[in-house]
Amino acid sequence: MNILREYKVPLQRYMAMMDLQERNEKLFYKLLIDNVEELLPVVYTPTVGEACQKYGSIFRRPQGLFISLKEKGKILEVLKNWPEKSIQVIVVTDGERILGLGDLGCQGMGIPVGKLSLYTALGGVRPSACLPITIDVGTNNKELLEDEFYIGLRQNRATGQEYAEFLEEFMSAVKQNYGEKVLIQFEDFANHNAFELLVKYRKTHLVFNDDIQGTASVVLAGLISALKLVGGTLKDHTFLFLGAGEAGTGIAELIALEISKKTNAPLEETRKKIWLVDSKGLIVSSRKESVQHFKKPWAHEHEPVKELLGAVKAIKPTVLIGTSGVGGTFTKEVIEAMASINKKPLILALSNPTSQSECTAEEAYRWTQGRAIFASGSPFDPVDYNGKVFVPGQANNAYIFPGFGLGLIMSGAIRVHDDLLLAASEALAAQVTEEDYAKGLIYPPFTNIRKISAHIAAKVAEKAYELGLASRLPHPKDLVKYAESCMYTPVYHSYR
Ligand SMILES: O=C([O-])CC(=O)C(=O)O
Ligand SMILES: [Mg+2]
């Protein structure tokens, strides 16, 4: 830690950590587990975003498996080249939408590597059971295509049938090589592929889309716990989103589902208090242009409204959620409008990394005179406003996917069901303490994340057993204890 702290540039710390992971894996995980709050922003968001942007020029050696279009017809062989044979979790990207940074081609590899290091540090999955994969079908990023250090295919992205066939070959090769119980986490695919891949493969594979489902689960947990601070139940609230992509529509649907389960109201009803704004304005049923299929459930009846500010004034939301991938879009006027409507406006600026956050923590507190309950996707430091210290929460899917994955693995789950996501949300919300609430926090600190992950894993496994999706028998009695007993801990073994 002394050496790491000598590096003042975040990217240098990242490179030092990657070197350490290579040189002494146990020490890497020991450091990460014992200093999670300090090191999460180094190996993960936001620094991993910069690392992906510069991945070619800081490249040392491959940390995961690259599968390029050139290997069409041979993907199974390529998988067999990976030295570890017993794989439990794969995180795969095609690099088309890396965080809120756009198409970074196969330089997106930093993301599966970072996510899987959290699977181990936060969720206790053995490092050797984790496989980071980047599918290289080209990139439409002109700068990268001309960059002398770019490490991927120098061609535009394969699309349509060529893309679908390549992914189909990949998905069947994975199942053939690792069996039915390997978890495949889709990460940072573009909208147009993410929804389709999830719908297509959730019936035949154990798949989980972190950006749609993981983000939804973590945000729902924050909303459930925020009720302690703002009062009411979820159905008493009105939600407005800026951004109607994977995160926006994923969260919206999970909120609607939770309300529907709790009140027995049909989904079509519970969706009605959830509104989404995209680049064309409020999504309404009378919109002339065609609305993409994943936005259709949110096209409610309302006159057209062009801007977010107008939508805030018209809809009067109690909760404002940013999933736009565009920084600074929660302007002073927007936040002030939220503050004039609500005593305690709930504001979530979820886009990553920090540069893409819809507003900063400081702005959220200042523009609401310290009344906002605020959380963001990327971490912000505590804010001193009018002599009081405000601690922002981090609504990042890192709270969910490690424990969620552990729950699937330990129960031998074969499919992911939405009820497992709801179980994970409730488990996370239940980990927020009175002490956290007193500080205005809607998420527990990351310091206790391994304990939190064990609780999430236990609830996910319990639900999987209940739904008949778990293949590991017999059902362990104390699932929290069992989860803890499954977790990898970095210690040196005695060889005597
Ligand atoms: O990686 C993160 O910090 C959260 C996430 O999935 C994304 O922004 O795409
Ligand atoms: Mg992501």
Automatic annotation (TrEMBL):
Cofactor(s) needed: Mn(2+); Mg(2+)
Family under the similarity heading: Belongs to the malic enzymes family.
Matches recorded under CDD domains: NAD_bind_1_malic_enz (cd05312)
GO BP terms, alphabetized: malate metabolic process
GO cellular component: chloroplast
GO molecular function: malate dehydrogenase (decarboxylating) (NADP+) activity; metal ion binding; NAD binding
Name of the protein in question: Malic enzyme
UniProt source species: Handroanthus impetiginosus
Top-rank taxon, per record: Eukaryota
PROSITE patterns: MALIC_ENZYMES (PS00331)
Domain (Malic enzyme N-terminal) ranges: 21-202
